[in-house]
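Input protein
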Amino acid sequence: MNKIIIIGAGIIGMLTARLLVKKGISVTIIEQGYAGKESSWAGGGIISPLYPWRYSDPVTRLAQWGQRHYPELLEEIRVNSGIDPEYIQSGLLYLDIEDELQQAIAWEKKHAYAFESVSGAALKTVEPGLDFSSVDTPQHGCLTSTIGQVRNPRLVRALREDLLQLGVIIEQQTQALSFITQGEQLKGVMTDKGSFYADQVVVAGGAWSARLLEQWLKAPKIAPVKGQMIVFKAKPGVVSRIVLSKGRYVIPRKDGRVVLGSTLEFNDFDKTTSEEVLQELKQEACRIIPALSDYPVEKQWAGLRPGSIDGVPYIGEHPELKNLYLNAGHFRNGVVIGLASCQLLVDQLLEQDAIVDPTPYLLTEQRLVNDSKDIDLSTAI
């Protein structure tokens, strides 16, 4: 039986492990903290890029594959783990996209997405929580009613429990320190708790992936991008849909809570939150859904996205070390493109037909940079 080590127990690492163990592969995950407690826990769980027309075709291909396959997977995980990830097909309502409307329509036609133009009374029906008495409220929007969402903290809990039942070993609070090599082949991972040996190693460490690699090898452009978010303790029905306006989104959960996100901050690995951002996010939430002013903010938090310049993740074998693979750089789309990226990596590991052309995601020389070069994500999507 083949044995594979995965470094990182976020959504990417755990989904990769699940796909492998279902194929009879022995899998051990090495996690520096606790499974699913970093960016995977912190995200909004929208199973769609926020503005999909802004992304390149490689991202769209992964997103569409994931959107088709997520409902079945999430139901299987729910049954196996006994934990409901709370998948909801709530739909996504785009507001304030007049400047991009033609681009969005062209993208929708190319990729056969169902955009529905709504205005006037229809807009009020789609999202009653909008303030139609305000002159600042958009009178037109676009709806994609098929878009779903999951509740990230519940998803990672369900995945962790599911993996344990499937026999995956998760070594938490275990720091990967270096690689064990023999010539140009990787044989295992040295950690602060000893050595782990395997036939192949997958680095799926999110924002920390490049920092691990760049000590010995050329590393891809992956950097931490902080996102602060808040959640309101509201009631069911206050918000009906995911609503996206001016780069901010509100997400209604099953129990009535409403998530508002998210900032884009470039502060290295700092995960602190601030009162200034809290007030800004509250103001934005109430601008979109005025009734949220009647409910308290229950929590504020921050996560570190694994930022890549163009949003296209790195999926494949490292050209400098055989048996070392990478699955990282998903930026804001870890959930929506994560499932497809994990399947694509497993296709490579098991040398089977790929779900999509793997070429755009590979770790080519053109996509790798020396660790002395700066990473500038100020223009990130």
About this structure: The two ends are 42 Å apart (CA to CA). The chain has a mean pLDDT of 93. The chain has two domains: 3-78+152-221+310-369, 92-145+224-307.
